[in-house]
């Protein structure tokens, strides 16, 4: 295989370990889950447990990804990966991934069986994706199930173990599927070079962009129209922003409009997260 040979590190740095967690998405998912717990009026102590459990689970997913993909990342010279840089050994990431997964299990189940198992569905989905589903046409399934279960688990952590209304996990599932399509887009060429053919690879860049934009728009609709009663003014305002953003985001697969499409995708994602948090507040 052609690539950057790994140097044998003596001791991994904290920076290398943090980078290998895929820190930006891990922190983003943790922050959204924690804020949703706050808006759903989960008690402060349990909010902290939710945040720590989700963060541990996200770290385990990131570490397992870089551990399991070490050879593939070296083959395509992924110089942004700590393993390829020689900053951390795959064996260290394996140990860290297993340890953080165990921590996630304990912290999640402390919240109770129902919220715990729902939160752990995201962890199990991430590991299943890393272990092989990413190479199949079902690569989006872990994102749909995991991010659909996450808001349901957070809501269930509130007093009385309430069940989340259908529109929260539905919107979470749509956001997860859209995130999968957007996350894979920059790495399609490298993935294909190493035999990875998930759903976005089979759809291609243009169709993936259109499907992702439609999913983000659908999440907006569900979050605004799903709750009982007429939507608030800010819900209608969100939809007014969402409609043109969906149209522009659908052009992300074309070279000519890619620069405009990225801000549109970002706008839709932020809008949906705000609507999700507002939905959590509406439960109380």
Automatic annotation (TrEMBL):
Its main location: membrane. Keywords: Membrane, Transferase, Transmembrane, Transmembrane helix. The chain crosses the membrane at residues 16-40, 96-129, 141-160, 166-188, 209-227, 233-253, 260-283. It is found in: Membrane. It is a multi-pass membrane protein. GO terms for cellular component: membrane. The keyword Transferase applies. One of its GO terms (molecular function) is transferase activity, transferring alkyl or aryl (other than methyl) groups. The keyword S-adenosyl-L-methionine does not apply. It comes from the Bacteria. This is 4-hydroxybenzoate polyprenyltransferase. The lineage of its organism: Bacteria, Bacillati, Actinomycetota, Actinomycetes, Geodermatophilales.
